[in-house]
Amino acid sequence: FSQGFKHFVIPENFKPAQVLSCLKWPENHLATNRKLHFSIAEDEDDVHFEIDSLTGDLFLSKELDYETASHFLLQVFIKDYTNTPPQNNTVFLSIDVEDQNDHSPYFQDDFVVIGVEENVPVGTLIYTFHAKDGDGSFLNSKIQYSLEVSNMAENPFLIHPLYGTLTTAFPLDREITRSVILTVSATDQAINMTDRRLDSLAVKIVVLDVNDNSPSFTSSPLSYVLEDVEVGFLVHGITAKDPDEGRNGQVTYHILSGNEKKAFALDKITGLLTTAQPLDREIQERYSLTVMALDDGSPALSATQVLTIVVLDVNDETPIFLKHLYETAVRENQDPGEFVIKVEAVDRDAGLNSFLQYEILPGTGYEKFKMNSDSGELVTATSLDRETQEVFTIKGNSVKYLPSRSSTAQLYLTILDENDHNPLFTKTQYQISVREDLEEGSTILDLFASDEDDGLNGAVMFSLIDDTFGAFAIDSVTGSIVTTKALDREAKSQYTFRVVASDCSTHLPRSTTVMTVLIQDVNDNAPKFEQNYYRASVWEGQSPKTDIMQVFATDLDSGLNGEIEYSIFSGNEEAAFLIDPARGILTTNAVLDHENTSSYREMAASHHLVLLASDRGTPSLNSTATVLITVLDANDNPPVFSSPEYHVHVKESIPVGSHITEVSAHDCDAGTNAEITYAIISGNERGHFRLDRKTGSVNLMKVLDYENTMKFTLIIQAT
């Protein structure tokens, strides 16, 4: 055999005990009946591979690690025992291990804190990150860097993806952002995206302060102080803020100018400004101090402010009116707001202390006026009435405050009269009652109206403005109301009219009252029946209290004078009738019998009723009416024969048709109740006789025979 060379590549993750499929022996080495023996050179230190001595199959005996050993060179001995002596052959195997991405990039630290000054320019290198990857091949160990920010909307930093250099991308400002938390990631570049591995590092970047901010004043540039404050009084607190840190933000205060007279002292640490000398507004009422706020940075930064201090006046003067007494006149009845007078006072103080307020002091009638608190003008607050109050004496006051100082003046106001009052009646309406029999010309009421005005404005005249139907008149001067004709309540029971009271001015102010005159009734009308003569009927035999009729009477009077009572004046001597005194209902008082009394009529004194209608006046008046009452018949009486027995003697030879006799009966009833019908009810069985049913006449109808019948007994009935 001769020496040979073989090369192949196996992946790093090739599993032990697997046959390296890429190892192929020449076919002649595997010929049948050949006795071959395979072995690996014994001086090989690596024990990653083994070979089957019989078949020549090469096995991986332990896991590969590209990062430890990426190449193997094996010398394989092949001994052929087929020939004698055995022949030897050597094959060199060159094995390359193919790297697998089995290592993640890693940083040496888990957390890094970096400090950077806030004034570094954009693009300044802040830090360089170094991550390592244990893989051996280029792409598996090639690292790319990326950056994420967790607590800001905008990332002020950039990282180079290949070199890992972190630089500023925007200007930094510690006063806005004190620190930034970043996440730096290192990712390898394995060909397959899914095989790529990464590691992350948390980074805190602390922005270091630089004295880049000047102090800024926050206190007001204006302050006020009273002129009478004591030395050492706190006038103002000067404050300034510096957003820098540490000594860069520590502020001290200084007065640069305006305090030449040393009127104020300033605490450089606290900024409290106090008085160093007494103040006098009359000497100097305003100070302008230029103050400086200085920080302790290097170099130091500062700011200035002009502080104006206004010295306030102290109220030490009293206001004085130009006059002690103001006199004027004002017309009554003017609209509210009418100008009356203007008062004026002066005060030698300044500012608010010289500002005066005018007012009216409480007193009688003061509420009727209003004073302009600023101008001192007095105007009416309501319409004035001279008749209520003619003269007003009020006090005006000028006042100032802090503390209060004031002075007063007197105002004497006269109200000029105008005809502003109507005559007034005592009441807006009157109601009186008079009897209807009052004589013509009688005074029924004396009206009175007053007018508070003077002269002609207060002279009152009376008149009527409504129709009184000629019944009343009024005296224009005295106001007496008199009757002008006889009154009749039944013609008109009430009069309502208006009475006017006028004064004598040209404007004729006037007022009215309503007069109501009620006419009292006098019993001057007798009751009157609706009819003078009445007819009525009633059945006999009715039970007592049976209604017969109702009569009505009227009385034009009112009250008791018009209340009517009914009674039976005459014709009721037997008390057969009753009448309801209030309703006029006539009823029976006993059972009436037609047969005993046919009528209670006018011709017989005992048979007619005279009814009486009386009022309840004093004296009482009355009238009468006659009632004819007919008692109607009821069939309450049976017929009665004139004789209970009739005896008649006739000859037997009397011819047929002869008149035998006549029976007669009487009935006390009347009309059809008294009409009688006769009939034979027995004794005429053979029909010898005929009875006329109307007249009661009995005639012979058959021949008589004495020998057969000597006697006939007829029973006759009258109905």
Main attributes of the structure:
mainly beta, Immunoglobulin-like, flat
Tell me what the structure shows.
With 719 residues, the protein is mainly beta. The protein is 1% helix and 43% strand. The strands form 20 sheets. Strands 44, 47, 50, 51 and 52 form a five-stranded mixed sheet that branches. Strands 1-6-5-2 form a four-stranded mixed sheet, with no helix packed on it. It is flat, with a radius of gyration of 76 Å. The N and C termini lie far apart (189 Å).
Please tell me the overall pLDDT.
86
CATH topology of the largest domain: Immunoglobulin-like
Radius of gyration: 76 Å
- Sum up the overall morphology in one term: flat
Taken as a percent bin, the fraction of beta residues is 35-45%
How many helices? The count is 1
CATH architecture of the largest domain: Sandwich
Task: Give the assembly state of these chains.
Answer: single chain
**Helical amount:** under 10%
**CATH homologous superfamily assignment of the largest domain:** Cadherins
- Tell me the number of structural domains: 7
**Largest sheet geometry:** 5 strands, mixed
- What's the CATH class of the largest domain, please? Mainly Beta
Low-confidence stretches: 598-606
Number of beta strands: 59
C-alpha end-to-end distance: 189 Å
The secondary structure category is mainly beta
Pfam families: Cadherin (PF00028)
Protein name: PCD23 protein
Main location: membrane
Keywords: Calcium, Cell adhesion, Disulfide bond, EGF-like domain, Glycoprotein, Membrane, Repeat, Signal, Transmembrane, Transmembrane helix
